[in-house]
Amino acid sequence: MVVIICLAIGGCTKPPAETILFDFETDEELDRFAWRCHTMFSLSHEHAIHGMKSLRFELFPTDNPGMAPVDFPKDWRGYKNFCFDVYSVQDDDIFLEIRIDDRDDAPDYSERYNDKLLIRTGANTVCLPCDSLVTSGTKRKMSLKNIFLIDLFMTKPDKKIILYFDYFRLVR
């Protein structure tokens, strides 16, 4: 009887302690991203946190250079944090912007999660608590059942920016 109830409400199994979204170990992983103009990317052996490689990401001066994965687990229920590592070779701290959508209809700014992440020179670990993901305007909690978009970008950088990304993960 208990098994039937669990199947009916769907969610008796816990997600793994960690789910790796991107680790940048193979060229095929790069095909899981939508890349914007004025960005260059390649796998690198520099500044890898997990595994042997990282993603070297160059953003050039333009409006919003960045990247957005198109193939990743959409159901974040049961996880406490969305984390990734980024290494900056810049001389100064920078702000990296993140946008997360829980709808596929390109919601306006007030109906999606938006944040500016301070990235210091050197190694940075970014962890966003999943329960802190609320829309910018209405403060509605994001539906963790269907995360549709993760967008990392800069707004009008005035010079070339080089970052190394690695180890995108969901943590329980």
Lay out the secondary structure.
Elements: H1 2-9, E1 18-22, H2 27-30, E2 33-35, E3 39-44, E4 54-59, E5 66-69, E6 81-88, E7 94-101, E8 113-119, E9 122-129, E10 149-153, E11 161-171
Antiparallel strand pairs: 1-11, 2-5, 3-4, 4-11, 5-10, 6-9, 6-11, 7-8, 7-10
Describe it:
- This protein has 172 residues and is mainly β.
- The chain has a domain at 15-94 and 117-133 and 159-171: Jelly Rolls.
- The protein contains two helices and eleven strands, in the order H-E-H-E-E-E-E-E-E-E-E-E-E.
- The protein has helices at residues 2-9, 27-30, and strands at 18-22, 33-35, 39-44, 54-59, 66-69, 81-88, 94-101, 113-119, 122-129, 149-153, 161-171.
- Strands 1, 3, 4, 6, 9 and 11 form a six-stranded antiparallel sheet that branches.
- The chain is globular.
- It starts with a helix and ends with a strand.
- The model is unreliable at 1-10 (pLDDT under 50).
Structure in a nutshell:
The chain is mainly β. 7% of the residues lie in helices and 41% in strands. The chain contains two helices and eleven strands.
Look at the structure and give the mean pLDDT.
Answer: 92
Give the terminus-to-terminus CA distance. Answer: 28 Å
- Gross morphology: globular
Uncertain segments of ≥5 residues (pLDDT<50)?
Answer: 1-10
Strand content: 35-45%
- Please provide the ordered H/E string of secondary-structure elements: HEHEEEEEEEEEE
CATH architecture title of the domain at 15-94 and 117-133 and 159-171: Sandwich
State the helical fraction. under 10%
Write out the CATH superfamily name of the domain at 15-94 and 117-133 and 159-171.
Galactose-binding lectin
The CATH class label of the domain at 15-94 and 117-133 and 159-171 is: Mainly Beta
In DSSP terms (H or I, runs of 4 or more residues), the helix count works out at: 2
What is the structural class?
Answer: mainly beta
The biggest beta sheet reads: 6 strands, antiparallel
**Annotation, overall tally of beta strands:** 11
Q: In CATH terms, what is the fold-level topology of the domain at 15-94 and 117-133 and 159-171?
A: Jelly Rolls
For the CA atoms, what is the radius of gyration? Answer: 17 Å
